[in-house]
Amino acid sequence: MTKDNDLARRVAALFSSPKYHPLPERDLSKALRLGSGQRGALRQVLCDLEKQGRAAPLRGGRWGAAPVSTGQITGTFRVRLNGSCWIIPDDPQQAPMWIDPQACGVAMNGDRIQAVPVRREVSARMFGASDDTRAARVVRVLERKRQWVVGILQATPYYAYVVPRDSLLRSNIKLTDPPAKLEVHLGNLVVARITEDEPSEGQPVTARFVEDLGDPDSVENDIPALLLDRGLSDAFPESVKKAVKHVQGRIARHGPDLRGRVDLRQKRIMTIDPATAHDYDDAVSIDPLPGGRWKLGVHIADVAAFVEPGSEIDREALRRGNSTYLVDRVVHMLPKDLTVRVCSLQPGEDHLAHTVEMVFNARGDMLDSTTFRSVIRSKACLSYDQVQTFFDDGRLPGLSGEIGEALRDLRKLARAIRALRFRNGALDYSLPEVKCELDERGQPVGFSKRGATEAYNLIEECMLAANRVVARRVYEARVPGIYRVHDEPSEEQWARMADELRSLGHRSAPENAADLNRIARSVLGKPDQYIVTLTLLRNMKRAVYETECRSHFGLGFDHYAHFTSPIRRYPDLVLHRILIGLEEGKRTPAYSKAEIEKLAIHCSATERESADLESQSVQIKRIRYYADQLAKGETGPFQGTVISLNPKGLIVELRDTLQQGMLPYHALGRERYFVAEDGCSARSRKGSPFRLGQPVEVVLAAVDETRRRVDFHLPGGTPGRPSDRRPRPAGSAGRNPRNPIDKKQKKKANTFRRKGSMPRKKNATPKGSHKS
Predict the structure, then answer these.
(1) How far is Cα 449 from Cα 351, in angstroms, rounded to an integer?
(2) How far is Cα 137 from Cα 130, in angstroms, rounded to an integer?
(3) Could you give the domains of the chain?
(4) pTM above 0.90?
């Protein structure tokens, strides 16, 4: 028996063991007690077993026995920005499968679908997929996710249709009842509601006209159109408003119920939040103890005291899942009349809270903790900027000396906790955020980058500690709980990270959090700090909500959950209710495991959608900003960095605004460029290569507001005419080019003659798109 056959036998036996749980390749190698030189052999064995149908790559980069297939898969249909289509199976053990765009039927992004696997040889022959692609085709749409669509109203001689503004929608939408005087509305931005009851193959998606928003280029339509497209609104239903008034009336008549609460109204408690905040859901206090110890208090607005499970307010909060922070507004999870006027920990007022008290030693170790419901009265309402100014120069105008003393104590303790957390393996790096500055009309006028300040870090450490305490208490009570889980990178992510870091000059491949921190600290203050940090972060998994309490890789915690923001996150409100049940000694848990599983899936999905909306809202304004710059002839040059490469060009990110765009290879010269196998460099036959992280100087060449895409050229180049210049190093002098855009470019209107045929929407992602 050869060594490979013996290894294959051992792997297959392990997979068939009832005690085996799927493991990533790295852990599987350890379980089999293989040496570092046998990883390649293990990888080959896994591939061979997969071809034989005896093993399968599962979700999260794990490997196990191939799932028993019933021939059909149910899951969520997803379209990526590069145009590729996928099914994300409901079974968490099944990996996503690729779907050819021609095999998607009438599925729309976000739909629940039923699909069937396609055999490898059939996949390659029918869809042009590679031999190792796991492929499927859509059988039918089980449930439409999208109910609304926003787009441009167009018409053929036979019917009207909407061209969706969302580039992830692959087809136009036929209107069943177009507006009267159709010609008046043509070319306008409209809202339509999808009407089909049962999506069927071969039939166009249909919708009912609802509203004309007017000029599609109007800046006032930017964010409302984005919200309407997702079926969201910053307004609440009348039934919810009525329920809030009922809560307010009850409090006005009887006052808050203080029974069973610990009275902390004399304590030195304060809130520290962004200057723009109006609802304060957390406050902190600190008391020095003998022996250099500290008692830290984290006091969270007791939203559970006012929002009953299953009430109108609760159902709407669950539907939203969380608050969404857009570039110019907030879509709140709970009505402001409830959060600001009832729950918010306003200074100088009595408010109900849920308190976590912790005792720390001078080193930052947590020695003891307890939780209880309380009533508090905040002594000060501070902003991050105020606290940071106090830390920088000692000034705290208008506030008492005891508040300054408390801030100094909090600073000392937070520094100790933070240092210990990083020593214990928490990841110690982050990227700056971009803030978009708008005028009164919503027109973008500028951008600024911002990073975390020490004042922000102080509150972060307090909240992390409280979240950790509550997670551990729920876990040890063995009741169903909702946890915040962040798994370590998959094998593919570790490998990709190693390739990118190697191209940036870091030869040793990272294998754990300590390695990542070592690399991040080695580039602090250096020119490549941003690209190295970006490389580390983009090869991480997303944190999610789970019923299983697994470790949080990024924070380095064994137990973690979200507790400290019940005003803006529904999982926090759920955890409050669970904790109240434990504190009151109730025998029946607040939620069953099945209920928590549904909540975790739903809240993870709403969080992803909110993050996507927040990103899109900034991108919409940023694209509008650069379109205006281009129209004014202010095309650069701008300093940028190559952050990725694809077969069509270099993806460049501008340093000042973090706007990404493509620098196509045809704009670099007349040679043909080839991307290296690791995707980290591209070279022509004659020239020197372009590499990941390389600084470049670029000018604006084109801005597509519909597809939210920017194209760059080198200084001196023009669209359709390659520049013979190599890119300048960032910071070098260069001539300001004239506006390279041909302002006479015209949009070609499609004409349709055949009755009953739907005009095909142009590819959502233009040729050469850099988005993935």
Answers:
(1) 36
(2) 15
(3) 3-64 (1.10.10.10), 73-143 (2.40.50.690), 148-229 (2.40.50.700), 252-428 (no CATH), 633-741 (2.40.50.140)
(4) no
